[in-house]
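Obj.: predict assembly geometry.
Materials: sequence records (below).
Method: joint structure prediction, all chains together.
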Amino acid sequence: MNNEASPKNNPSRRDFVKNSSLIAGGLMAAPLLSSANFFSGSEATIKIALVGCGGRGTGAAMQALLSKQKVKLVAMADAFRDRLDECFNTLNADDISEYSSTVKNLKDMIDVPEERKFTGFDGYQKAIALADVVLLTTPPGFRPIHFEEAIKQNKHVFMEKPVATDPAGIQRVLAAAAIAKQKKLNVVVGLQRHYQNSYRELFKRKDLIGDITSAQAWWNNDGVWVRPRQANQTEMEYQMRNWYYFNWLCGDHINEQHIHNIDVINWFKNGYPVKAQGMGGRQVRKGKDHGEIFDHHYVEFTYADGSILNSQCRHIPGTMSRVDELLVGTKGKILCGAGSIVDLKGKSLYKFDSSKENNPYQTEHEELFAAIAKGEYKFADAENGAKSTMTSILGRLATYSGQIIEWDKAINSGLDIHPKVYAWDATPPIVPNSDGYYPVAVPGVSKYF
Amino acid sequence: MTRSTGILMLTVSSLALYAQPGSENFKKYQQDIPGSSISFTMVPIPAGSFTMGSIATDKDKKADEMPQRTISISAFWMGSFEVSRDAFDLFFRDETISQNSTVDAITRPSAQYIDLTWGMGKEGGFPVNSMSQLAALMYCRWLYNKTGVFYRLPTEAEWEYACRAGTKTVYFFGNDPKDLGQYAWFNKNSGNKYHKSGQKKPNPWGLYDILGNVSEWTLDHYLPDALENTPDQSKDPVAPVNKSKYPKSLRGGGYMDDAPAMRSSNRIKSDPTWNKRDPQNPKSKWWLTDGMSVGFRLVRPFVQPGPDEVNSFFQQYLGK
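Observations (raw structure tokens):
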């Protein structure tokens, strides 16, 4: 991915290096790797560590193991032992025919004895140390810390989106991304539409619609799981379990899910918005177990050339549901979900053959591991991952405050919504009021900078 | 593995409260769903016997449709339409029951990760799509709770018997697929999407969209040699429930399929790739991210089983 934004909102390489020495001390001290130096033993098996053992982490681990290269899972880390065990058991199933028609089971590719299973907030460091490639699939709030550590330890990375929940985290990821480039470490980010055949084919043909003048993006559906509070949980444990509803962990659903659609527009626009303004709130999902996040956002993002992305995301059951992107240009439209390009009169200019669609979650691992096995440096997704994440965060800052939020101001704000201390008995950055409900942003009142 | 007979068909030992087929109690009726304005129509499928499997002259016949067997079938009713999104949503949105619970006998499907109708249509008489066999059977359990009537999925044998409606040809309207477009939405006329139920001509027994539109879950575990292992003159055969999630049998073909998939004898087996774009492991028990042309149709056995038998049926298929 090669997204060169306008210089104004794209810090130079020199800025990155300057920042990184401030933010990520020690990162640069590591020696550069030779491009083929990924395996650490005598046999050329790529060692994998999984950091974050939930449903997505389990999926990513399985896709990595099914990547058709010589790989082994050697370490696992999760804040919670029960999540780690569930994941380990799923991966070790006798029969994985539900996932793969070619491989009976993955047992030979899993070598994670008790001493290589790490729990708690600091398990990630130990797991990362044992591998050549790390899969970072915890809730997004931890991604900057984990990514920084992986690059510091000279590892190739697959990391899920979004890659941060606040501007301070974005800066850490951008700094580490610059160093990953210098070290020639492959980084793939799970914005899997970049690895999906239909999107790749549409992207190749985007000039059919001329200059993109406006776009729309949707992630409207019923929403996700809730994990109710259990007796004997500390506030920190409760939030870590029910992480979707807390911004330091999730960044709100505009960040955690809608980023996919926003990122497609950035990709096709070959840039990032300069400002955002929008509205949102909590209309339906407003109980004690719903933390602080909104259930709907509508944002207009403005790009440097004045073109607009109208983005909407909603988590309200029983409402109109659509997950899609639409780009309008001077000569036609791209309808991403339908895999089609039409002229301004609606006449078809291109239609993707849906029988040629791939499983992008699998493809991103096949391409990453093939590059690593060959000793190639091919993937540098982190910078775009950070900037598309920043776009979503810009939207959240706009809907929460009701103000126009400028990219440059927001990304350089230093805004940090994370706990000072990561520990089970530490106080999270947001706590419930005396009535058990969490404080929620009020547009027109809430201030961010 | 051989097919069992009778185990699941729940023949009732207690006094049958219903009159015999042929009587006035065995006719088309409308089932209202209490507490809603939604209803659906059930048509009678008389008891009888038929030849199951593909006919010798069928140039598209496949090994898993052979050899032909004479099978007898007890009376049942069958939905004239595939189950609608409108009806399924009453269950999916029923806030009186839990969602995705591992312990509750009746529980709703989890929310869809993305909109699995893919914009093809929801309210107003479209078939429900993209659900697993488990979700279809859980709907049956919910419906039993709501109506007191036992509905379930058809067996493969019941489905083929009802689809043939007494015909012995490749399709219920003859051997030549040229007229298929009058009866079915399939790859040549669907525009790559499903359509509202009931717009095409029905089969002789009043079943609409029995071919095409969405393919229909059956109760059977898919066995490639099912007919091979079904003795001739069997009554109400079914391949028993199997722990393994894959493959299960479906019938009828969907809007993406070609004409040969619409043949009365054609069998479809479920496949893990129907969930390939589910980013989570384990995959959703309820929804198929890539099974957009999968749906289901209800049957109601003429002889209704008692509550204990109904309960043990659901326990067997739903695991609780």
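Conclusions so far: The interface with chain B takes residues 55-56, 58-59, 61-62, 90, 95, 97-101, 192, 220-225, 317-318, 321-324, 337, 354, 359-362 of chain A (CB under 8 Å).
To do: check interface contacts against the pulldown list.
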